[in-house]
Write a structure and sequence with these properties.
single chain, 245 residues, alpha+beta, 5-stranded antiparallel sheet, 6 helices, 17 strands, 40% strand, elongated
Length: 245
C-alpha cells in the first residue's frame, strides 16, 4: 500500500475511489460546491479521515474527510483546519464529523465515553497514532514531548515541527519547535494566548514592537491583536489558546 504524505495525494486517491464532490464546512451543515445542496449531521457519515500536522504553523494544520451520504447519493471530501485556531462548530456537527466505521454504524445511538472518541488518529507525521487530546483528565509529559518533537524527521528536514497536546472546545495547547528563519508571520488569534519558551529565544512582535523572550520566560496576549513570532535560535515554545466565547 502506498503511503500518502500530503493533502493533495489523499485527495487524488479519494477521487479515484469516487469521492468527487468538494464540500464546504459551515457551522451546522456541509455545503456542496457548485450547487445549493446542504448536508446536515443526520444526512452523512464520515467514512475515513486523514490528519496532517507538525511541519507548519498550527493554523495550517489540516484534516481531510471522506464523506458519504446515502440519502443524497453523493460522496465527497472536506478539507478543514483543525489546529489551534480552528473555527467552532455546533455540537451536532462535531459529533457527525467523527469517523463512523461501518461496523459501528448500527451502534451510533449508544453513548460513547469521552475517552473513547477524543484520540488523534495516526498521521503521515506520526504513523503510530493514538494520542489522547481531550478527556475529563489529560496528563501531559512536557519533557517527553520536547524530546519527541526534536527526534522526528520533520525537525531535521523542515524549518519547524509541532505537536498538538490538548484540544477542546475551550482551549488548545500546541508545542512548537522552530529553527532560526522559521517565522510565524503576522496573524491574530480568536482568544487569549500564552506563549511559554521552553528552550531557546524568540522575538514576539506586536504593533511593530519586538519583545524578546528566552528559556523560562512567557507572555500573554489578548485575542484579535496581530502578532508574529521569530526564533532567534533553535527554540521550543508552548502555545496555549483560550477560545473566546
Amino acid at each position: 500500500m502506498d503511503t500518502m504524505t500530503t493533502v493533495s495525494e489523499v485527495l487524488n486517491r479519494l477521487k479515484k475511489d469516487g469521492y468527487n464532490v468538494d464540500f464546504n464546512l459551515s457551522e451546522s451543515c456541509l455545503v456542496c460546491q457548485g450547487n445549493s445542496l446542504e448536508l446536515y449531521p443526520e444526512d452523512f457519515v464520515v467514512d475515513k479521515h486523514y490528519r496532517f500536522e507538525g511541519i507548519s504553523d498550527p493554523a495550517d494544520e489540516a484534516i481531510v474527510y471522506a464523506i458519504s451520504s446515502d440519502k443524497h447519493r453523493v460522496k465527497g471530501t472536506l478539507v478543514d483546519g483543525y489546529g489551534i485556531y480552528s473555527d467552532s462548530l455546533t455540537h451536532a456537527m462535531l459529533k457527525a464529523l467523527q469517523e463512523k466505521p461501518a461496523s459501528a454504524a448500527a451502534q451510533e445511538n449508544e453513548p460513547v465515553p469521552l475517552e473513547e472518541v477524543k484520540f488523534n488518529e495516526a498521521t503521515p507525521q506520526r504513523p503510530q497514532g493514538d494520542r489522547l487530546l481531550n478527556a475529563p483528565l489529560v496528563l501531559l509529559d512536557l519533557p517527553a514531548a520536547l524530546l519527541q518533537i526534536k527526534e522526528e524527521q520533520a525537525w531535521e528536514t523542515s524549518d519547524r515541527n509541532a505537536i498538538t497536546l490538548f484540544k477542546s472546545d475551550a482551549m488548545r495547547m500546541v508545542m512548537i519547535a522552530l529553527h532560526p528563519g522559521a517565522e510565524m508571520k503576522t496573524h491574530t488569534a480568536p482568544g487569549t494566548i500564552s506563549v511559554q519558551v521552553l528552550q531557546g529565544q524568540i522575538e514576539f512582535t506586536v504593533a511593530e514592537e519586538p519583545h524578546q523572550r528566552s528559556t523560562g520566560q512567557a507572555l500573554t496576549l489578548q485575542g484579535g491583536i496581530p502578532h508574529s513570532v521569530t526564533p532567534l535560535e533553535d527554540s521550543v515554545v508552548l502555545l496555549t489558546l483560550v477560545l473566546a466565547k
